[in-house]
Amino acid sequence: MRYVFKILTGALVTIIIVSCTREWDEIAISSPDYRLQLIFNLEYGGVPYYKLNRNGSPVIRKSALGFVLNEMDDLDSNFILADNKIGEFNETWEQPWGEVREIENKYHELTVFLKEKSGLERKLNITFRLYNDGLGFRYEFPEQDNLKEFQVIDEKTQFITKANENAWWIPAYRRERYEYVHKKTSLAEMDTVHTPLTIETKDGLYLCIHEAALYDYPSMTIFRTDTNILACDLVPWKNGIKAYVKTPFNSPWRTIAVGEKPADLITNYLILNLNDTSKIEDVSWIEPAKYIGIWWMMHLGISTWESGPKHGATTENAIKYIDFAAKHGIKGVLVEGWNQGWDREWLDDGRVFSFTEAYPDFNLEKVVEYANSKGVEIVGHHETYGAHLNYEDQMEDAYKYYHDLGIRYLKTGYVSDKLEKDEWHHGQAGVRHYQNTVEMAAKYRIMMDIHEPVKDCGLRRTWPNLMTREGARGMEYNVWGGEGGNAPSHVPVLVFTRMLASPMDYTPGIFEMMLPSRPNNQVNTTLAKQLAYYVVIYSPLQMAADLPENYEGNPAFKFIEDVVCDWEDTKALDGEIGEFVTIVRKDRNSNDWYLGSITNEEPRQLAYSLKFLDKDIQYIAQIYADGKDADWKTNPYSINIYDKIVTSKDSIQVYLAPGGGQAIRFVAEKVVEEEE
Ligand code: NOJ
Fold first, then answer.
1. Is 116 in the pocket of ligand 1 (CB under 6 A)?
2. 284 burial type by CB count under 10 A (0-12 exposed, 13-18 middle, 19+ buried)
3. What is the pLDDT at residue 474?
4. Average pLDDT of the residues in 221-244
5. Rounded to an integer, what distance in angstroms lies between the CA atom of residue 233 and that of residue 230?
6. Residue 17 has pLDDT above 90, yes or no
7. Cα of 451 to ligand 1 centre, how many Å?
8. Which of 113, 214, 343, 444 is the most exposed place for a label (fewest CB within 10 A)?
9. Average pLDDT over residues 85-99
10. Spatial distance between the Cα atoms of 259 and 376, rounded to a whole number of angstroms
């Protein structure tokens, strides 16, 4: 046997092909800045593997690729490398709305065209895109005679790290979907988990394993087969099959974001870049907005979703909320419990819901008309209780009904252990269903906020009407959740885990933290931290979740009135996972900047240079800081609100009380001469 070594070196990539009858091959590409290297191997027996190195040392060790199929030979060996293609790509694209306006999409790409050496001679291509800050790869099944329709029993993709690295994770296959408190353990102690999965490596890197462009395929959870061997575990249908596939088909991208510090992960746009450009041509109708809602009162138990003396969604109540929204410049009013079905044991059977019939004490037409007269919009609501087929039956009528009335925002919900009591929310059935809702909504020009969703994989780039989701323990857990609600460390963890997937409808802005109607519960933050959430937690639909009476007369509410939810730029200044984080964002429609900083139980004194501010502008910093005596547990309301004149040459001290935060609006005041 003779080994042939071919080395090609070019400006674009370095290719090393070690060839033996092309059943053994190695091809390497580097990231545009040459720091990351992706190595694809076809080993003896035609078995495919990949590796990811950073500056020559392993980030992901030799890891498997391929599939186990039902009633068919597996697609994981016996391959030859029929061909390969190497390319580069560099563009900057603009988000219609988002956390930044412009995103650079710059990568080197390798596609390997694999073909079985014998038997059915099936073809499987794998495309790798290597960015300066991470890797994405996907399987591409071309149309072919010997592989038309097939069933996936297992995807063999592995992510093999070094032993005993730390990870922040939530368990998969649990009844509360993604609504668990993240645990930090070594990988060796990790359960089967959802992604995004955030890992701190022994070399001091921060990784996030997730996926992009998840369509018509189950979501990937991560299963640990040995201390450091992480493998893809696809969420199955109830019959155990993981995916039903018809060629041509592309799998979602498997993604590994790489950062030198935790804050790098926050501004990593790998997931968005790996999604296709928008399928909605005219996006001018898609508008970020703040909203209030007939909502918190139900969670507090002051009102009910169901009809009766405490029914929350009455015409009268809606008018009060609309008046409040109009007075304070808030665009949307959410109304939950407006439609028939909540009375009849909805928690047992979501099939009772009607999405077009309102309760008699709620006149939707009149409410919408009144809202319009005040420049306010109603945010519609559809709770399905996981009866997604009942929902699909009514979906087009329901969306058309809203559209004809002029309702453009919609919150949906899927509270239930399983869809139709049968299928995981995150399996192929769920992925298909959520996508159906988004496409139907686009047809009727409706913007979506999905609660109990399937996790986001950057689909908002392709479907910009899919604005935000819940998909984690939100604010409501403070009222009725176990474990005393969300601990002060909860959001400082979410920012580095759940939030790496997409915007989140956390529903911030609770001002009455002691919850008089729930004497055993408390919202575990200071008041200033609630304000800081508007900057730290990115969502283009951002709720002011508390009751209007808790806002009236409180000077801190000015920050919620002022803060925007569509950004020109975002910078993560620093942070440690579960400890603290500080983020600054620039308004898309002015020169104003906003800062949000939050901490866990620990008080902190932080200092930042203001060099991110526009250079030639003098700003008034409107500061909402924890009082010196503030404490999330004993004194959450203590806040210092004051102004300070600053420019980009200044720096600021940011004090965070235990469980506290700080919010700052930097109002662009006037242009100043730059001193040399
Ligand atoms: C759970 C959602 O997260 C919450 O926002 C909603 O109020 C209830 N389901 C009822 O739909």
1. no
2. exposed
3. 98
4. 95
5. 9
6. no
7. 7
8. 343
9. 98
10. 42
Question: Distance from first CA to last CA of the chain, Å, rounded?
Answer: 70
Longest dimension (CA), the chain: 86
Running DSSP on this structure, what letter comes out for residue 384? -
Is residue 212 within 8 A of residue 457, CB to CB? The reply is yes
pLDDT category at 21 given cuts 50, 70, 90 is very low
196 CA → ligand 1 middle, Å: 23
Confirm or reject: Cβ of 470 under 6 Å from ligand 1: yes
Distance from the alpha carbon of residue 507 to the mean position of ligand 1, in angstroms: 11
Kindly report the three-state secondary structure assignment for every residue of 324-380.
Answer: HHHHHCCCEEEECCCECCCCCCCCCCHHHCCCCCECCCCCHHHHHHHHHHCCCEEEE
How far is it, in rounded angstroms, from Cα 22 to Cα 659? 59
What span, in angstroms and rounded, lies between the C-alpha atoms of 111 and 125?
7
Check residue 162 and give its pLDDT.
86
User: Cβ(176) to ligand 1 under 6 A?
Assistant: no
| pLDDT at res. 511 | 98
Q: Which domains does the chain have, with CATH numbers?
A: 2-273 (2.70.98.10), 289-564 (3.20.20.70)
CA-nearest residue for atom 3, ligand 1, is: 451
Q: What mean pLDDT do residues 441-469 have? A: 98
pLDDT of residue 5 exceeding 60, the answer is no
Q: Which of 109, 165, 476, 512 is an active site residue?
A: 476
pLDDT of residue 227: 82
pLDDT in tens, 324-335: 999 999 999 999
Q: How confident is the model at residue 19 (pLDDT cuts 50, 70, 90)?
A: very low
- For residue range 353-386, what is the model confidence (pLDDT) as tens digits? 999 999 999 999 999 999 999 999 999 999 999 9
What SS3 class is residue 216?
coil
Q: What is the mean pLDDT of residues 551-558?
A: 98
Nearest CA to ligand 1 atom 7: 295
- pLDDT of the residue at 520: 87
Whether the bond between 58 and the residue before it is cis, its omega within 30 degrees of 0, is no
Vertex 280 angle, CA 278 and 286, to 5°: 100
Is any atom of ligand 1 closer than 6 Å to the C-beta of 293?
A: no
The confidence score (pLDDT) of residue 482 equals 75
Tell me how many degrees the CA angle 166-192-473 measures, rounded to the nearest 5.
80
E strand or H helix at 560: helix 557-562
Cβ–Cβ under 8 Å, residues 410 and 450: no
Other C-beta atoms closer than 10 Å to the C-beta of 83 total 11
Interatomic CA distance for residues 213 and 276, integer angstroms: 8
Whether 66 has a pLDDT exceeding 60, the answer reads yes
The alpha carbon of 657 is separated from its chain's Cα centroid by a whole number of angstroms, namely 28
Query: What is the chain's percent helix, strand, coil content, to nearest 5?
Result: 15, 40, 45
* E strand segments, 460-522: 466-469
* Identity of residue 61: R
How many Cα atoms occupy the beta-carbon half-sphere of 314 within 13 Å? 13
Q: Which atom of ligand 1 is nearest to the CA of 474?
A: 3
> 568 CB less than 6 Å from ligand 1?
no
Q: Which residues contact 204 (CB under 8 A, 6 or more apart)?
A: 260
User: Contact, 500 vs 265, CB < 8 A?
Assistant: yes
User: C-alpha distances in angstroms, 385 versus 175, 182, 290, 391, 638?
Assistant: 13, 25, 25, 10, 40
Task: For ligand 1, say whether the CB of 413 is within 6 Å of any of its atoms.
Answer: yes
Residue with tokens 């990870």: 167
Token code pair at residue 193: 């988990």
pLDDT on residue 450: 98
φ, ψ (nearest 5 deg) of residue 235? -70, 120
